[in-house]
Amino acid sequence: MDKKIKLIFDNQTVTIEAGELVGYIVDSHEFIHQKGSPGWRNSDTEMFPIIGPTDQENFRVQTPKGSAIQDQHGLLRELEYEVDKQTETRAIFVKRYKADTLVLNSKFPKKSTEEKLSWPYDFEFTKIIELTNEGLKISFVIAGERDMPFMLGYHPAFKLISDNTTIQANDKQISIEAILAVGSRALHVPNCKKIVLSDSQSMEISTTGFSDFMLWTEVSNMVCIEPITFYPYAVAQENLHKGFTSLDNGKKEFTVFLKPLHN
Question: Quick one: which of 127, 158, 198, 223 has the most CB atoms within 10 Å?
Fold first, then answer.
């Protein structure tokens, strides 16, 4: 696939690389964490069909079709996107998976004992990135076998410049220091569908389909604001399957909207 795609709408420019959102510039301000900067080697990724670590359970997660071999945050990130459609303001990417296909695990052998991962269901995962007059809409459409269990999390990283960055979630204000203090588990923000990130330039992140957020960083120059369907540390790893939602009619759609705000 074309490794780099640019979308343009008025004063907004989006850069996408192999399906990954690597840039979102509004009036010359870059909102997205840049690869190579301290903090994280990526700019965004998706967590599917599970969220969270699995190492304590020998990398196995229980499903109605038996045990699935899953590493942290699932196997979707090990698959490559194909470009389905592209216009000046919209790009559609698809990943397809055939049940029980073995997928090489990029964490092996340094960070995992599992060389290959698998999932006992077919699925098609579509990511749509679209610029509108109000901001950037990112949609996820999951299609597959009726009643397939899954979790979904979106994991974008935002660039920070200010020394006084805050996050407003429902009626709570959260500092970067508070997120740093939680560490690798990520700070859970339950029952929340909208967050406002206030930095040198501010942004509203709103969602549909997701129920919660996780907030994570290990540095002060970026923060990951992650919509999720389930917070994985709410249960022990052997009970991770209790966090599954179901693909009731064989298809579900989730959206994340990034709306720049005038400071």
Answer: 223
DSSP 229: S
Distance CA 218, CA 8 (A): 32
Instruction: Determine, yes or no, domain membership for 62.
Output: no
- How many residues in total does the chain contain? 263
CATH code (residue 234): 2.70.98.10
The domain containing residue 84 runs over which residues?
4-49+75-96+122-261
Report yes or no on 112 lying in a domain.
no
Q: What is the pTM of this model?
A: 0.96
Per-residue model confidence as pLDDT tens digits over 6-22: 999 999 999 999 999 99
Cis peptide before 38 (omega within 30 of 0): no
Number of domains, the chain: 1
What is the Cα–Cα distance from 188 to 230, expressed in whole angstroms?
10
Report whether the peptide linkage leading into residue 109 is cis, meaning its omega lies within 30 degrees of zero.
yes
Side chain identity at 166, as an amino acid letter?
A: T
Q: Which DSSP letter does residue 32 get?
A: B
DSSP code per residue over 72-133 = TT-SGGGSPPEEEEE-SSEEEEEEEE-TT--EE-TTTTTT-S-SEE--SS-EEEEEEEEE-S
